[in-house]
Design brief:
Order of helices and strands: EEHHHHEE
Oligomer: single chain
Distance between the termini: 62 Å
Radius of gyration: 19 Å
Number of helices: 4
Number of strands: 4
Length: about 120
């Protein structure tokens, strides 16, 4: 017989939406720091998508893009609010570059080091 799982929510471990990071950047001291939040990133992407969709002629836009397409674009990174992603991006944002001949680039899903030629 299967038992029901206990449902527990610990609000002290939940990161508020306004602190969920979508992107990081490297500052002038070569330190990776938090950049734009997930909320702001989603709003920007949604507005850009809406503007781009408005460039299409109505007839073509109605054929190619169903109503709400800008919402789909805006929500494309909503998974970044997951605790595991936020832990990963916060950990990377507080680490220093370990070698002066490498620079870190934000790749969306994470940060990679690329040698400078």
């Amino acid at each position: 017989m299967l038992r029901a799982r206990k449902k527990t929510i610990c609000s002290k471990n939940i990161l508020p939406l306004e602190k969920c990071i979508a992107k990081t950047f490297t500052n002038s001291q070569h330190k990776i720091i938090p950049g734009i939040t997930v909320e702001d990133h989603c709003k920007i992407v949604g507005n850009v998508a809406k503007s781009l969709l408005n460039l299409y002629p109505d007839k073509l836009r109605n054929i190619l893009f169903p109503d709400g397409s800008e919402l789909v674009a805006a929500a494309h990174d909503i998974g970044k609010i997951s605790p595991s992603f936020q832990e990963k991006i916060y950990r990377k944002a507080i680490r220093q570059i370990d070698s002066p001949d490498k620079i870190r680039y934000n790749t969306g899903s994470g940060i990679m080091k690329v040698p400078i030629p």
